[in-house]
Amino acid sequence: MTTDTLHSMTGFARAQAQGNWGLAICELRSVNHRYLETSVHLPETLRALESTLRDQIRHHIKRGKLECYIRYQHGDVKNAELIVNTHLVRQLCQVNDSIAEVIKNPSMINTMDILRWPGILQIEELDLEVIEDEIVKLVDNALISLAEARSREGSELRALFIKRLDGMEAEIAKVKTRLPDILVAQREKLMTRFKDAKIELDPARLEQEIVMVVQRIDILEEIDRLSAHISETRRILKQGGLVGRRLDFLMQELHREANTLGAKSIDVDTTRASVELKVLIEQMREQVQNIE
Predict the structure, then answer these.
(1) Longest dimension (CA), the chain
(2) What pTM was computed for the model?
(3) What sign does the dihedral 270-275-279-282 (CA atoms) show?
(4) Which of 292, 243, 237, 246 is nearest to 30 (CA)?
(5) What is the pLDDT of residues 181-240, one digit of tens each?
(6) In the chain, domain spans
(7) What is the distance between the alpha carbons of residues 137 and 4, in angstroms, rounded to a whole number?
(8) Residue 181: exposed, middle, or buried by beta-carbon count in 10 A (0-12, 13-18, 19+)?
(9) What's the pLDDT tens digit per position in 39-80?
(10) Helices (DSSP H) in 61-108: which residue ranges?
(11) CATH assignment of 11-77+128-151?
């Protein structure tokens, strides 16, 4: 995994391999998950490979819920030795003799009848060493395809995040442009209230009251923190790699600052900007859950 690549945790891959050793198909499905959770579904014949395949998956996938399905079909068995279960044959013959003593005119037992009995004829036990390398290669190819699929979706998500971040910066720019007018309007509003109430304050006291009001509605700190978090999010998106949890934390911080911005707002435009910021952040936060 290259560090500048962003990976989604959602993906599907399928690989197939065939040879004298047989036919094998591997299917991988992955969805988002807080940690790495792997399920390997193997035919009983290949059960001994489970630990090897789990280690192989952990080498490629770091986070997500992944299910690995492997189907296997025996290859050319013309050189395989056929084994007769002689113990079962003897048991069948004994049972046949017992039945023959009970019924009249019993028919003779037929060799083909015995061969049709389940478990009489067996193929020699499969040598796992013959196919282990092929199965490992097959899973490796499927994992590479899965990584490519997750990378493609990660690139799409990155473009979506950049678009949302651009929208957030546009909203912040609107608020910053409005700040001087908001402060002037609040000063005039305060002066009007004093005048209507016929309260006369000396210039020093008036200035003190205005400063206190300005401090209560000052949103520059929230704007600066929002801008800092947006810059950090851009940096992480460019960096790529295993950044899902870091991005999730930043979404929480962005949402907290947007909430505070709305709580301090005394202007319709600022309130609208706060709402729009939270919408954009929520859209990102939903998709961040899919980032590895």
Answers:
(1) 131
(2) 0.70
(3) positive
(4) 292
(5) 776 666 666 666 666 666 666 666 656 665 655 555 567 888 999 999 999 999 999 998
(6) 11-77+128-151, 82-122, 152-288
(7) 26
(8) exposed
(9) 999 988 888 899 999 999 999 999 999 999 999 987 665 555
(10) 86-102
(11) 3.30.230.10
